[in-house]
Amino acid sequence: MGGAFRISHGSVLIFLTLSLLVLTCLQASGSILTTNFTLVNQSRGYSIFFLRTFSELAGVSLSATISTTLERIKWAMICRQGAGRARFVDFLALQHSTTLLGLLSLAAGAGVPSIKTRLWSAIRLLLMILVPGIGILIMSQVEIGLAFSPVSSTTRYFGYDNHPMNATSALEYTSFTDLILSWKFAGFLGDPTRSVDLTPDNERGRVCSLNVNAQDSLGCNRTFFVAGENMLVMPELVRDASFPDADIILASDHRGFLLNFNAGNSSAVFNSTRDCRTYSSRYLGFQAGAIRLCVGNSGPHELEARLVTCPGSIASTLTCLNDTSWHNNVDWTIKMSVMFQNSQVAYSRSNGTILWHSFTDTSPVPVEVLSTDILKAYDALLLDTSTLLFNGSSSGNVPLFSSSSFPTFLWLAEPEFSDQNAINPATSNAIYSTLQSLLAAPMYYCQSGVARRLIPAILDAKTVNVPELTYLFGLLSAPPERNSPASFAHHRYEVKVSFGTLIAYIVLSGTALLACSIAHTVISLSDHVRHGRRLPRLSRFPTLDLFAHCTIEDENRCVIYQGRSGFFPTEHSPKSLKRWLSTISIKWSQPHNMEDGGLQLFGDECVEGHGDWSSISMGSISPIPSRSKLVGSMSPYSSRTKLSLFRSND
Known about the structure:
Elements: H1 3-28, H2 38-41, H3 44-78, E1 86-87, H4 88-94, H5 100-108, H6 115-138, E2 142-150, E3 157-159, H7 177-180, E4 195-197, H8 201-204, E5 221-226, H9 230-233, H10 235-239, E6 248-263, E7 276-279, E8 282-283, E9 286-287, E10 291-299, E11 302-309, H11 312-315, E12 333-348, E13 354-359, E14 365-366, H12 371-381, H13 385-388, H14 406-413, H15 419-423, H16 425-445, H17 450-458, H18 467-475, E15 484-497, H19 499-525, H20 527-530, H21 542-549, E16 550-553, E17 559-561, H22 577-581, E18 644-647
């Protein structure tokens, strides 16, 4: 019954399963199979869908391979030469139609004397769990990440890295300080066009607040990677209209600042002359409050800063600059460590946001930052040049507004320190964000050549043919050497399964497939199969094969059922097997009374010898005991009712 195909298709299934497992692993290792399919790699949903499809197909194929292998093992066990008989419970343990409860009863139930039967049942149960298990495993730790395909271009372009701070370049921002230190200054590090928040989720949810003694009680830590805005890193590419379909500007091996912040020591003492400065602004001719910024070095690569605001009671009398009693007030303090870190950075071409970054294998390099440089930069940024022009004049002639209103904005925005504000999460987080920005902003802007790149961006890349402006550009510090490779690129989504999960998937599925391959090979090469009794021609219907090829008898060699293989047409016969199967029927052999409804198997003839059964000696099966020996109504697993299988004559 189609035996040639049925036996040989096991090797086909093994090859198919191996291929699908390899494809699944390739797709799980970065969507290698769909890299060039735009419809797939432009969608997160499609990316995960294709991985799921490959894994499900591999699972179905592996299940079919295991099923075919168990079937071959079952028939090899029945057809062993010289083995006599095989236990019927072993046959049931390997039979596809045996239910889960049936396997559990054979594996762990009472009345099963054979360890071999329990072992086969346990293997079947394990394999039933294995196939869906590895399908769940491969999808358990999946990440959908961004990947990029650079655009091929004959012109190579290099962008600007970040460099150590140059405090003297702060003078280049004179008269337009408020353009860079805006009222959104507290969100300087939160700007997605400039930096990436690397703070772990468990620490990001931790509130930066102080207790009533002005000490950090929860452990406030924040980490940022400041790559820089694309108009400062690669200004020419930002203005380049080439390759309009490319949606990414990709910077490779780009150096940025790696900044780590934590709550400083609120009781730390700063040198009032060397480490502290007081800044104020005029607004409508009035001295509108004041701030005091103290910055010191707590280590070679670490800064500590404190911001104190003039109390309202003093500001209302316009004496913040004369009354120094508030300079030593307890207030919020923060620490910052600085390192350089190289990374790949992908900028959105449409809005300039940082979509992705990946650090290179190079280790972070500590950067020495002096507190005096930070204060020197703010002395230049917040210098009141308009007041200098009227030095010595009467107060009535002093301009109504100072050249920078940033100190006033900062004084208005930052609340005074109090027990309630110290433990208020919203207030503390806002103040810590401002302190972080106060330390990071001068390092970012006060680099050589930044102002020369920033001014054209502020002017919206307009071409202004003014000699004075050209002369001004010549006074600005020159940009550094370009070292960061940059290019246009297309983005795509790729699936990445964790390395440990992928290894576990390969080991489990590979072990099952290897076991199936070994079983097929051993059975094919076994002398038990190649000589004497060979495996019968099997159909695609295991139940039909049982009826056709098996003789069932009890421990006393009393026939319970005699197979009649010659009675069934083969798939290669002129009469189609499927058409013949559609003409026969099946019905329930209803017992005469309820007492006869148990499992009672018996036949009409018993043979004392050990020869094979023939169809001549086989009678019909009767529901009522007559001349045949009744096997018994006890458990079919007991030694008295042990059933065996004979292969009937074909």
